[in-house]
Amino acid sequence: MSRNENDPLFPNGKDDYEGEDYDVSQLEEHSHRPPQLVTQPRRYKDGTSIDWLYEEAAERERRRQIHTLHGLRGLLTLVSNSAQMWMVIVATGIGIGVIGAWLDVLVRWLGDIREGRCDRGIFYNQPVCCSGLDSGEICTSWQTWSEYLNVTSILGQSLLQSLIYVALAVVFSGSAAILVKTYAPYAFHTGIPEIKAILGGYVLDAFLSAWTLLIKSLGLALAVSSGLSLGKEGPLVHVSCCMARLLSKLFRQLRQNEAQKRRILAAAAAAGVSVAFGSPLGGVLFGLEELDTLSGETDVMWRGFVISVIAAVSLQYIDPFGTKKLVLFGVSSVTDDVWRAFELIPWITLGVIGGALGSLLIKLNVRFAVYRRNSALYQWPVLEVIGVSAITAAVSYLVVFLRVQSSELVANLFVECEPSRPDYHGLCNPTALWRNVFLLVLTALTKVFFTAWSFGMMVPAGIFLPTIAIGACLGRAVGLVTQDLHRAYSDAWIFSACPSEQTIPCVSPGFYSVIGAAAMLGGVTRMTISLVVIMFELTGALSHVLPIMVSVMTAKWVGEAFGKEGIYPQWIALRNYPWIPPHEYRDRDGRLTTASVMCPVSQLVVIEGTKTTLGHLEQLVRSYDFNGFPVVQEEIFLGLVGREKLRLALEQLLSERSPTELAQECTFINTYAMSEPDLIDLSSLMEVSVLELRTEVPLELVVNTIQKMNLRQILFTQQGKLMGLITKSDIVDLLTVHLPHRAALADFVENRRG
Amino acid sequence: MSRNENDPLFPNGKDDYEGEDYDVSQLEEHSHRPPQLVTQPRRYKDGTSIDWLYEEAAERERRRQIHTLHGLRGLLTLVSNSAQMWMVIVATGIGIGVIGAWLDVLVRWLGDIREGRCDRGIFYNQPVCCSGLDSGEICTSWQTWSEYLNVTSILGQSLLQSLIYVALAVVFSGSAAILVKTYAPYAFHTGIPEIKAILGGYVLDAFLSAWTLLIKSLGLALAVSSGLSLGKEGPLVHVSCCMARLLSKLFRQLRQNEAQKRRILAAAAAAGVSVAFGSPLGGVLFGLEELDTLSGETDVMWRGFVISVIAAVSLQYIDPFGTKKLVLFGVSSVTDDVWRAFELIPWITLGVIGGALGSLLIKLNVRFAVYRRNSALYQWPVLEVIGVSAITAAVSYLVVFLRVQSSELVANLFVECEPSRPDYHGLCNPTALWRNVFLLVLTALTKVFFTAWSFGMMVPAGIFLPTIAIGACLGRAVGLVTQDLHRAYSDAWIFSACPSEQTIPCVSPGFYSVIGAAAMLGGVTRMTISLVVIMFELTGALSHVLPIMVSVMTAKWVGEAFGKEGIYPQWIALRNYPWIPPHEYRDRDGRLTTASVMCPVSQLVVIEGTKTTLGHLEQLVRSYDFNGFPVVQEEIFLGLVGREKLRLALEQLLSERSPTELAQECTFINTYAMSEPDLIDLSSLMEVSVLELRTEVPLELVVNTIQKMNLRQILFTQQGKLMGLITKSDIVDLLTVHLPHRAALADFVENRRG
Fold first, then answer.
1. Rounded to two decimals, what is the model's pTM?
2. Shortest CB distance from A280 goes to which of B313, B549, B691?
3. B594 neighbourhood in chain A, CB within 8 Å
4. Can you tell me whether residue B518 is helix, strand or coil?
5. Which residue windows are transmembrane per the record (chains A, B) (predicted)?
6. Could you report the predicted ipTM of this complex, rounded to two decimals?
7. What is the least distance, in Å, from the CA of A273 to any CA of chain B?
């Protein structure tokens, strides 16, 4: 606390603001320092939060300066300025489309190689190896490993196949883990929690490096094809953001401004989802709903839309699966595309199961993650990955539905039984009903366990696909049971809406799979609209959008009964990122007030603005690493001075002077400096964008203001006097205080004040 | 201006805020007035804006009071509290589903009756009348009017048919206009601009009355079936909102709180779109993108999702068209669902046409609306409707594509030519190419003119369907030309991607229609994502989502070159509603600053807070109708006192006293009142949620803060001193100043200050 009670009360500070145009450079002219201090881009350390208002102001200033340029130069600058943003958008869209396609091909090949090889060359995957055959012809080019090595005994064949299957799983996952651990630790996990935090203003530049891009792509292919229970969807969003970040480094306007950087990232995230699911609309909506950054900013939404389209077009052009379609898991409906009211019962049941099991999966995953950090496993991440993948592979080899890759399983569960199609492992055999149901439930439960464990290990891992697979198994099981009930009691009144001819199937178990998948995803991610859009872009089941909506609705309701947060906010809390959930804060019992959350002025480090010394300021900057210091005159609040700005100014001022001049006096009041020429005028160091509220203001409004305006702090004044301060960190603490494992995996310790 | 320069400078006002819990009732206890003054719902006159912060605070306080109730009563209140909201949601969803279905049936019947009647009874429409026939059998039950009246000569038939056609058009539209003019003037037009404004905080209770609901539904059916170039989509949103408003009147929490009321309305609007297009997802996204109210508020988005599903399920259950599908204009694809790169050329062309023609339509419509208001037509709205519908009917009867209802035209343009399907007016005849193209373009241009005129007359009118019809005609024309080019030059390299067999069609003109419709809608409404979703929920053309996105993208770009605003913001500006566009404000040339937009303190009516008289306050309230008055002490800003709150308090205080006590002194400083017991303490009248900024703050941030926080005003202080004020109206003026016809159709004159 530095107060000089003897300073004059009221300088006549009127003529420095009235009718004066706001202009950073003009403000600078008043001061003793060169102007580059403000126009210089502000640097943030990893682990801090950006100052949105500052970044937005800097961007506006840059844009305004472009508009002041005249003639050809002005026009060219203007054009190149908007062209740069769009170039990054287009290049990222194309790039992520290419990477997505390349990943599909790589994963497919690596997965196939675990079972056999092509005699036309090892680099062919099974479909390519067997292409060009007439239907019905048997593919002889593709050989299992036992065929290739001429093992004839059945026991020998099984042993050899399973050994290679497990061994390659271990090799793949192990190399993924080593790559991640050695070259890019931030390439582990899904990346979506980090992206949410970054888009909210968190600074974590290491997370979006070129190494991360490379390792995450490569590791992802290895991890997915090792058969670990994880998907590639979330990580693709991360990869897409890395790529956008790299490309935007080419242009100064995008490199230097943190707000612009985040706008590009928000659009790139949409492209990631677009490619991951072949779902351009779903991508935009994912950005809108889950990342919550596009809202309000129509420009960003629009760019997300464009980048999504470009990414999807690139993917479709490359066409990695050779289907010429974006729809990944096409649903073939053999029924008349009409659903009956009684089906709402199994569908709502699936919603309930999805909500409950999703919450269980979240809880298990958090528990496992905390256990991992606190146990010996934390020291041996690669060993853990190898062990888990060996166990996963061994167990998976035993259960027929687990053995194939999740995407293949899902694709087969989504389609209906048709005479023209080969029966997938006896799924369509009505006499094997209970065996199928048992196998499906077993598969689902095993996957819940493995997913809860694997999601968080030292490999790139997405949670979408495993969740879809779990839901699809359960959905199919419920569908099979419903179908059997209909077969057995087709005359019951509840089935009266079914067509009377027994030949027309009434219940489509494949579609129940889709419902189950949607419900399970709803339970885990708590998304709603974007989820529905992704599901039907994924399946093409547009006619069944209502049942999907109903089940997602139920899943969300049931899930929220077990805890409001989905898996991503849970991980954000685990890692203690300063991210504020978008939903409305409600202080139910009214115990907390703004005054009780606020850091009162008596505990703040404030600067007496009338007169102080450079030495004192220098000491403040050295002693505290708060983001800024409030400046007061008596108790009247004058403004806020940012720590970084102050540090730079002091550095310059003190380097010009001899060290003995630490006693040189300075002031933050402009008019005061004019009347006393000895004083150095620091008034232009104060932030212009400072929000003040009264202390009686409801806490909910404070939270809401910080949420919506992306503020780092709000100052509280009463009759002009400074009363206290609330920072973003205070709000994050307030909103995450109910989560049990908060900050259990934190890397950075946040500055709590200032 | 009321300043008393002799008042003491600094009262020690510390102990009335520090650590004190914020509690409305507690604050009340300090004062001389009974507490109901604050807990009473605030009333707003039509034409004003609500105080969001106040309403939110009131709602939070209500919720908090419920949570303080204990035992069974507390539980019951809690349950009934959330049940009420959901009951309104469910009932509105079902209600609008029923109304939508009923409207479909009514419009169909009224439309058919213009051409003939059913001999099984006049109340059958054509499809019902002809149902139950085997395919190929000719429907004899349905008779044209000339058949019914046994007119045999061809001339007589034509004359009679056209006469009845025109006469009934006049009767229908005339009665619609009379109904609207007599009973519910607010039932005219689409209603979406008003809903946007209301959701933003505008007060217009007459707009959502029971009469409006009834007249709009009825008038809509009459207007649409009269063949005027208008649709029922926008008005259905209005009807849905009316219904939600009526149902929410049943419950006090929804009736009394303006913020809660708007949350229900936002959800209801989604249901309207859901039913209008059979597009539940599109409804939610429409709310998100066009109404821009759901953003940020996950609760509202979620309710919109639920209500959309319920409305769509109800509509599907009633199944007015007997198709058992929600998809209105099903697209049948005869091609292999794959599109070729060369097709991007015609599609982007369609995007350009849609963007340009859409802008033209907007411009024409605004011109016509302004002309109507300033000409003699304004006195004779019913006559205008009758005249225009007679002309429309007469012209429409001559052009084969105009004669049918727009929905029928669109449905036929969207389907492909197939041998199994009857050829629609020779559209599939390749030899009649140029006749078809001419007819389609003629239809489109006629419709542009008629739509531009009709949208704004004294009848309920939506712009979606006519726009879709215009776009579909142009799309089909472009498709036909492309198809012909392919036929003629099938060996050209540009068509090399087409299948080599001539029997497989390469170009699908029906799908070009869909693209054209999407582009045109994009040009007129400037929606993007919601538009794409609506288009493919409307057509089921999920596999072609990319081309639709590309054309909408192009249309938006081209459209924005002619002006940023879509048709709804233009109408909002025409009617001068205080609505702030959601997009970011950019002051390109930097001429405007906060200080130049701000109303400086010298022009404000301020209250000297230290000591004033009841008489003076009473005179202020009587003389000015600003929303509030700033209270200052010397120049230091103390707070803002709302006019309504002040008026009520004064009423009560003065009614207790004799009129001579107008000289009774009062103060707004709590501690001051304590030391001088004669003074009446009015400090609790001051608003708690007041936002203060510095005057140097960039104007963009001011606009952004008012946008995001839904503020009515921002106060500017400097070192505690009040400098000025910017209100929502100032910002609306700032953002609409470039629109030429701003306020040309305004009903209310806004308060400019306070």
1. 0.82
2. B549
3. 22
4. helix
5. 83-103, 163-183, 264-288, 300-318, 338-362, 382-402, 437-455, 461-482, 527-546
6. 0.77
7. 15
